Input
Amino acid sequence: MKKDIILLGIESSCDETSAAVVVNGRKVLSNIIATQVKLHAEYGGVVPEIASRKHVELIIPVIDKAIKDAGITLNDVDAISVTYGPGLVGTLLVGISAAKAIAFSLDKPLIGVNHIEGHIAANYIANPELEPPFICLVASGGHSHVVHVKGYRDFVVLGRTRDDAAGEAFDKIARVLGLGYPGGPAIEKGAVSGNPEAFNFPRVKFSDVPYDFSFSGLKTAVINTVNQFEQKGMPVPVADICASFQNAVVDVLVGNTLSAALDCNSPVICIAGGVAANSSLRERMTTACLENGISLHYPPVLLCTDNAAMIASAAYFYYIDKKWSANDLNAVPGLKLEECGINKE
Ligand code: KG4
Ligand code: ZN
Output
């Protein structure tokens, strides 16, 4: 019988300190996530210096708990995997330093993982039968990508945002409406009692790269609408604005992903990243896939937002191909998906 491969995953690219133990890239033994959301909420967004300091405090207890909850010891781990980009340089370095120290002291392989690859891999945990190829929408606070996942380590980015990421747009609009941080869940909640057709906010389409996104025009249109109500001394219709804004974002996320799947003859779509937690996106993508004979996969909410289990899952496919990282692994804040996997070899 083939030996199980046990990987420790570490994630510290933004405001979640997380460590996880995952077997064969699919089975999660533990996934500890210490969120700093409350700490950053009063500033309306992540403050990098505060985040780095908090990661320093949390990283060892979080790793200890992940190992303990998995019912193993560090010696049972086959390799240490860690996010090395994209993300905030100071926060990434905390996770990388911890991963290196453990790998070096135990003489185990170190595997650096691209955070976006991790988001995609969350789908392998949620759906143990899932295999590439498929089209994956990755929509988070920092990224909006339509990716052709041709193999476990083979990615072609078909479309990306030209300005704000989808999650970033949610966060900015929530701030303007005074709904707090993070914006995605707040807007989703606010939208429940609103009319998604109340305002016809713009949906940007590009003719040269049809899968690219742009959310800055939408953001400006929403802010102008809020200003107009305030200038007239009228109450801002928060629920209608939330619902109409969410409708516009979901329209383009679903539209571009579906076009990519149809153009690439892909019978499978996956969604990933924090915005994939949005129930309107899940519902609309489900309907679009049903209408087009495409099967849809998405992770549970806990695996959509940042976590280390997804990092250990992505790392497994590097481990089995013996693609370790060197001991001088460094943080790469602007790391691109094209710089990873088989593209790098
Ligand atoms: O993947 P993630 O945890 O971190 C990054 O890699 O950026 O994504 C966080 C983003 C935030 O912008 C947050 O507002 C958004 O995901 N988000 C949502 C929802 N939950 C989180 N956006 C829309 N609807 C949600 N339910
Ligand atoms: Zn993320």
Remarks:
- The radius of gyration is 20 Å.
- The pocket of zinc ion (ligand 2) is lined by residues 115, 119, 140, 273, 306 (CB under 6 Å).
- The longest helix spans residues 238-263.
